[in-house]
Amino acid sequence: MIHELRIYHCAPGRLPALHDRFQNVTLRFWEKYGIRPVAFWTTAIGPTNQALTYLLEWESLAEREAKWDAFIADPQWQAKRAESEAQAIIVERIENQILVPTAYSPLR
């Protein structure tokens, strides 16, 4: 089991639009493709409060590649994403890490 940590750094004031897109659009597409979210967070104390951090769970890198690529290529997702950003960009920058548990990790 591996996990993917993603941090979406939003344009100023656009975090509510990102929350809306996740709640009403993105999660439905993830369900369609079998993408498994573990948790979502916002930052209470840190360098910015305009970020969404989330964790995804994958069986393998191969599963991640197949499912993520299918999701990103979905023309309906692309249209919904473009629609959500018609007035202004939402995400300025994305950080992405693939995490592999240690032998002593309680989450494996």
What is the topology?
Elements: E1 2-10, H1 15-33, E2 36-42, E3 51-58, H2 61-73, H3 75-84, E4 91-99
Antiparallel strand pairs: 1-3, 1-4, 2-3
InterPro entries: Dimeric_a/b-barrel (IPR011008), NIPSNAP (IPR012577)
Pfam families: NIPSNAP
Organism: Pandoraea thiooxydans
Query: Mind telling me which CATH architecture this is?
Result: 2-Layer Sandwich
Distance between the termini: 6 Å
- What is the helical fraction, as a range of percent? 25-40%
The first-level CATH class name: Alpha Beta
Number of strands: 4
Biggest beta-sheet profile: 4 strands, antiparallel
Order of strands, main sheet, comes to 2-3-1-4
- In DSSP terms (H or I, runs of 4 or more residues), the helix count works out at 3
Instruction: Give the helix/strand class.
Output: alpha+beta
Helix/strand order: EHEEHHE
User: How much is the average pLDDT?
Assistant: 96
Radius of gyration: 15 Å
Give the overall shape: globular
Could you name the CATH topology?
Answer: Alpha-Beta Plaits
Q: What number of domains? A: 1
Q: Proportion of β residues?
A: 25-35%
Description:
With 108 residues, the chain is an alpha+beta fold. The chain has a single domain (7-99), classed as Alpha-Beta Plaits. It is 39% helix and 31% strand. It contains 3 helices and 4 strands, in the order E-H-E-E-H-H-E. It has helices at residues 15-33, 61-73, 75-84; strands spanning 2-10, 36-42, 51-58, 91-99. It has a 4-stranded antiparallel beta sheet with strand order 2-3-1-4. A hairpin with an 8-residue loop joins strand 2 and strand 3. Helix 1 (15-33) packs antiparallel against helix 3. It is globular and about 45 Å long.
